[in-house]
Write a structure and sequence with these properties.
By secondary structure, this protein is mainly α. About 35% of the residues are buried.
Length: about 130
C-alpha cells in the first residue's frame, strides 16, 4: 500500500525546500520580466510564468502528501521535465526569442542546471516512495 505522506519525510523535505525556492524565484523573475519588459520577449517571459506555476504546484503537492496531491505532483513534475527539455532546445533553436535568461532556457544554465536535474530527482523520489 502506498503511503502518500512518505513524500514529505527524509530527503523529501529537501526536495520540497528546493521546489519552494524555485517556486519563489521563478514567480519573482517572471513577475519582474512581464511587468518591466514583456514586449521584448513575450514567449520567454510567459514560459517563465508557466514554469513558476508548475514549481508552485509541485511544491504544494509534495508538501500536502495525500493520494491526490501525489498524482498532482507526478503530473506537474513530468510536465516540468518535458518543459525544461523543450524550452532548453527551443532557446537554442530560436535564440532571438530569449534575449534574457529564463528558468528553463538553455536547460536551466543560469540556475546551474538544477531545473534539468530537479524533475528527475522529483520523479525518482515519487517512484521510491510509492
Amino acid at each position: 500500500m502506498t503511503d502518500p505522506a512518505a513524500t514529505k519525510h527524509g530527503p523529501g523535505r529537501i526536495l520540497i525546500a528546493v521546489y519552494g525556492v524555485f517556486a519563489l524565484a521563478a514567480t519573482a523573475r517572471a513577475g519582474v520580466q512581464i511587468a518591466t519588459k514583456f514586449s521584448a520577449a513575450p514567449i520567454a517571459y510567459l514560459l517563465s510564468a508557466v514554469a513558476a506555476i508548475i514549481y508552485c504546484a509541485a511544491t504544494f503537492a509534495l508538501a500536502k502528501a495525500t493520494a491526490v496531491s501525489r498524482k498532482v505532483a507526478t503530473t506537474a513534475i513530468a510536465i516540468e521535465l518535458v518543459g525544461v527539455i523543450g524550452v532548453g532546445i527551443f532557446s537554442y533553436a530560436a535564440a532571438d526569442d530569449f534575449p534574457d535568461a529564463t528558468v528553463w532556457s538553455h536547460f536551466g544554465q543560469g540556475y546551474g542546471f538544477v531545473p534539468l536535474v530537479l524533475p528527475v530527482l522529483g520523479l525518482l523520489w515519487l517512484r521510491r516512495t510509492r
